[in-house]
Amino acid sequence: MSESDTVLDDSKSRFVERVGQMFSNVGMPHLAGRIMGFLLICDPQEQSSEDLQSALGIAASSFSAMTRLLESMYYVERVSVPGSRRRLVRVRRGSWMAVMKDRLRFVEEFREIAEMGLHQCEPLSAGARARLEDVKASSIFVEERFSAAFAEWEKRARNAE
Amino acid sequence: MSESDTVLDDSKSRFVERVGQMFSNVGMPHLAGRIMGFLLICDPQEQSSEDLQSALGIAASSFSAMTRLLESMYYVERVSVPGSRRRLVRVRRGSWMAVMKDRLRFVEEFREIAEMGLHQCEPLSAGARARLEDVKASSIFVEERFSAAFAEWEKRARNAE
DNA sequence: CATTATTTTCAGTATATTCTGATAATAGTG
DNA sequence: CACTATTATCAGAATATACTGAAAATAATG
Predict the structure, then answer these.
(1) Rounded Cα gap, residues B23 and B39, in angstroms
(2) Going by C-beta distance under 8 Å and a sequence separation of 6 or more, which residues neighbour residue B8?
(3) A44-67 b/e with 16+ CB inside 10 Å = b?
(4) Whole-number Å distance, CA A59 to C1' D21?
């Protein structure tokens, strides 16, 4: 993106749209994804509400709601500009890893559900118990591997600084 | 679950409902989750359409649609009963690991999106390129760790037989 | 303090999805 | 082949969600 980002060319709008689709696929609003996509490829990194509105053709209210959502999830951050009352938006460092982590929360939920079944659903047949134990064991396995992976990534990131 | 499963007691219906919520959270139909939850704790393991309809209070059409969906995703399987025209349903072995794997497909998509941006969105500023490279690197890292973890799990499962 | 650029809230519309009930199709059995 | 138990399809109701436009609130500046 070279000068002002009032209009997106074809390849960039396809990119933005694809990120939007992906967000939608994982249960988040389409517009939130389009904003993330745009923030990934725009220049400069920081963008105003108006920039995004004209580039993506969305309403100011949508921008406000989506930005607040993304901010609450720590995917973007807002910076004030001295001499202006605008608050620019940009993606946070490591936000994409955060997106992945957040999507994985359900694994923990899996384990909890299995434990709930084992403890609170008496009486259980031997077969049912075995099925729940299988859910529990696989969830724990995945949970451990994933948190180890994320810890390693963060360690790498710290060392790279 | 001891004898016939026409009605669920409190703790079991809470369990079923929670699995339903979880499915709904990850973008699948609520009823699909309730069916999976029931199949996890029922006795016997195999259940007929009618069993599930009366136990969960759902329409036959819903059962049909959801079962077909779950079958297409390899979460459940159907078995024919000799001497009857019923096809009973049960959870597949390892189905819960499959659910987890399926929910992780977006990681691959992440990498593909980053690559798409890098290759097809010329010209990109140096900053934008760096942001995309970061997405790509973290996606690849996660992708590799996850597939290694799943491979190890499958190896364990094979050895345990 | 008044002004106005900017953001947020809110009510309403459009759209998609889930689930049901009724009907049609399928396949095992006599 | 006829019968019927079982499953699948389809149209529509109910619900939820995303998005917009207008109005209200906020906050920086002169």
Answers:
(1) 14
(2) B16, B38, B55, B56
(3) ebbbebebbeebbebeeebbeebb
(4) 8
Contact (CB, 8 A) for A113 and A140: no
Cα dihedral B131→B132→B133→B138 (10° resolution): 90
Cα-Cα-Cα-Cα torsion A49, A54, A60, A63, nearest 10 degrees, comes to -60
Q: Quick one: pLDDT at residue B8? A: 80
Cβ atoms A115, A136 nearer than 8 A: yes
**What is this structure's pTM?**
0.90
Structure confidence at residue A1 as a pLDDT band (50, 70, 90): very low
Q: For residue B125, which residues of chain A lie inside 8 Å, CB to CB?
A: 1-2, 43-44
Q: Give the number of other Cβ atoms within 10 Å of residue A77's Cβ.
A: 16
Give A-chain residues touching B44 at CB under 8 angstroms. Answer: 125, 127
| Number of residues written out for chain B | 161
Residues B43 and B37 sit within 8 Å (Cβ to Cβ) = no
